[in-house]
Amino acid sequence: MSHKFPDNFLWGASISAHQTEGAYKSDGKGLTVQDTRIRDNHEIANFTVASDHYHHYKKDIQLLAELSVKVFRFSISWARIFPQGRKEVNQAGIDHYQNVIDECLTHNIKPMITLNHFDLPQVLEDIGGWSNRKTVDAFKEYAQTVFKAYGNKVKYWLTINEPNIMLLVDQKILGKQIPIKEKYQQFHHLMMAEKYAFKFCHELVENGQIGPVPNISLVYPATSKPLDNQAALYFNSVRNWAYLDFSCFGRYNTVFKDYLKQKNISITFSPEDETVMKENFPDFIAMNFYTTMTVEKPMDKNNMSEGISDQQSEDIMDWGFYKGVTNPYLKKNQFNWTIDPDGFKTTLQTLYDRYHLPIIITENGLGAKDDLTEDKKIHDPYRIDYLKQHLEQALEAIEAGVDLFGYSPWSAIDLISVHEGISKRYGFIYVDRTEKELKQLRRYKKDSFYWYQKLIQTNKIP
Ligand code: BGP
């Protein structure tokens, strides 16, 4: 075996709009739930400035071209296109992404666009957000508009980033607790919105390809006790498979349905749902992967609640079903997320054998506190190490038969972490966000930039 990645492998790098763009009120943009989210308002962590990618996009794409990436995953801010969520299109918003796409194409980089990444327009949130079926109608209008505007230039599309995490696991992302009765209905509305995205992409974009974007963390049982295995089955079904089974098979799995039944929750379907969900399917799966999780069957109701607090942490608690525990066999990063490259291979194999669809990794990476040295260097061997270990496993998965056609890690440039602001960085490109730099936000290439560049150019892990 050559231990090289396939010749046409899509190497990429990823970002999202609200974590990088800034310019939160510029050129007619409406506010989003991320702009209004209550959080530490310190300038350095501020999403309203972020990495000011809105004004630096040319420079950033030029750097990505130097990195040699073949694909750039970014999201469109819905509120730039429709400041009121629907109806009146903001031409400046359309033009902005047209320019970003053209800049990518000039450098021979394929754009891969996420329709929505955690930033619902605030006006829609004000009418109940995803609880209100009208938000699905607004999304349909938005998706059609975007496909019509850019479909002649963009082949790869992603639907809505991580509905499984945003609604079922980690409410910190939205900065608020959604009442339990509403959360599963919201989830269903998101699932239906995605089905319409599949439908419109296939109708409006010639040769267009579209995929769901789950965050998958495979769940292990803490011991070989049958009840711990059952806990893992339930958490796997709720966290990982509820979303993808609906996308790829057009139904919720029985374990998820039983989970809802035991919680006395029912989901309301609209008359057209049955047809739309069974007729529209993805072309590939875009998977975000950071870690794996370990659970046991909870036996003590003390301190147990329905809510789950942090996406990857151990403090998952769901009485009657599962409880997160430390996995003694895995190391952790500075922010307490476990590191599990072997689990990455297992996840890829599990995913491929379950859905039989091509897979591209659209997020994987290490969040860390990076230091800019006096001579403007960033030495990040820990990031290189993380990426290397995961890519070795990705290569093994490919050699074992998994149809993995690309890898687009998180993140292209430094951005504002959802949970930790700018103190947690992921990028290959450092963004100087010290107070005195807030106007310039200068970019510097990290050691990992040169490492990844070499990897892409040789198709081989250095
Ligand atoms: C994913 C999100 C990203 C990203 C990442 C890391 O779930 O899609 O937007 O931020 O998690 O999370 P964090 O920023 O909290 O480190």
Structure explained in plain terms:
By secondary structure, this protein is of the alpha/beta class. It has helices at about 15-20, 35, 55-65, 80, 90-105, 120-125, 135-150, 165-170, 180-205, 225-250, 255-260, 275-280, 340-355, 380-400, 445-460, and strands at about 10-15, 70-75, 110-115, 155-160, 210-215, 220, 285-290, 295, 315-320, 320-325, 330, 340, 360-365, 405, 430, 445. The chain is about 40% helix and about 15% strand. The strands form four sheets. The chain has an eight-stranded parallel β-sheet. The radius of gyration is 21 Å and the shape is globular. 6-O-phosphono-beta-D-galactopyranose binds near residues 288 and 311. Pfam families: Glyco_hydro_1 (PF00232). This is Putative 6-phospho-beta-glucosidase. Belongs to the glycosyl hydrolase 1 family.
